[in-house]
Amino acid sequence: MEGTPLIAWAGFLAFIALMMALDLGVFHRKAHVVRLREAASWSAAWVAMALLFCAGLWRFYPAGNAHVRALEFLTAYLVELSLSVDNLFVFVVIFRYFRLPEPNYHRVLFWGIVGAVILRAAMILGGVALVARFHWVLYAFGAFLLYTSVKLATMKDEGVEPGQNPLVKLARKLFRVTGEYTGASFLVRDNAGRITLTPMLLILLAVETTDVVFALDSIPAGFGVTRDGFILFTANMFAVMGLRSMFFLLAGMLHRFRFLKPGLAGALGFIGVKMVVEPWIEVPIAVSLGVVLAIIAGSILLSALLPPRPLKGDAACRGG
Questions:
Q1: What does pTM read for this prediction?
Q2: CB-neighbour burial class of residue 238 (10 A; exposed 0-12, middle 13-18, buried 19+)
Q3: Which tens digits make up the pLDDT trace of 59-87?
Q4: Which residues contact 233 (CB under 8 A, 6 or more apart)?
Q5: How far is Cα 124 from Cα 1, in angstroms, rounded to an integer?
Q6: What is the C-alpha separation between 319 and 67, in angstroms, rounded?
Q7: What is the distance between the alpha carbons of residues 180 and 202, in angstroms, rounded to a whole number?
Q8: Domain residue ranges in the chain
Q9: Within 13 A of 133's CA, how many CA atoms are on the CB side?
Q10: pLDDT tens digits for 193-210?
Q11: How far apart are CA 240 and CA 170, in angstroms?
Q12: 209-226 b/e with 16+ CB inside 10 Å = b?
């Protein structure tokens, strides 16, 4: 972070704020169902912006070794984006559990992303400060990723129960909650003028809690790719910001990515090993990018070649 000018941080934060303002205030001012064409356009736009940013790093990054920083960004972005796709499985379950009206999907995801931006920024900055003071933390991150990799590869799909989420249960205990949706509002006043929660806020709490759990994997994985806080933060933000449009693009076909979870386990395992053996073996970033890209692409290709069998009398669903 020391080699990144303050103006670069300010410029990127201004870009994120501008995109959020345009998203909610212009493009999605009114709640509506996001169609496939719109989702595909926005997904392509975010990927294109990430690649353009990577090219800018290659050309203009001021701290030296610009090409290394660009490859680190691309590798971290690929890892974060892949992990984000896996997260969409849980979002689908949460929305279906609460019977969220489809026109309200985007609003919940938007404010969920705002929370994720703040949370991940704090975790990344805290992680950078921690690593700078205690270098051994990197090896702890590596060991944690190895544990996560084994757990991800061996665990069976478990049913997610959003209603048992601790924050959701606490909110229901402390506040009045309406039994139905009131447009796209998170809070309303009852006839007595008291503030009452709507199911929209419960869903947002479930989404934010889920992101905390996912960030515990993705942030250490990012440190396995780069120690540069600016690179790690920007890669995370591009992946997270593109998550909403990717949700609408992939929500109906997530069950087809049957080998994505094993692929993510392999990628996290590779990064964990890379971090643990770093004192003796230094893996060039170009090799890391190639390995991660091969694992993720291979899992997607294998999913396409060996699709899940459809359930009797219906199309395949997740876990089928």
A1: 0.85
A2: buried
A3: 887 666 788 889 999 999 999 888 877 77
A4: 12, 120, 121, 124, 125
A5: 11
A6: 41
A7: 12
A8: 6-305
A9: 5
A10: 778 888 899 999 998 888
A11: 27
A12: bbbeebbebbbbbbbbbb
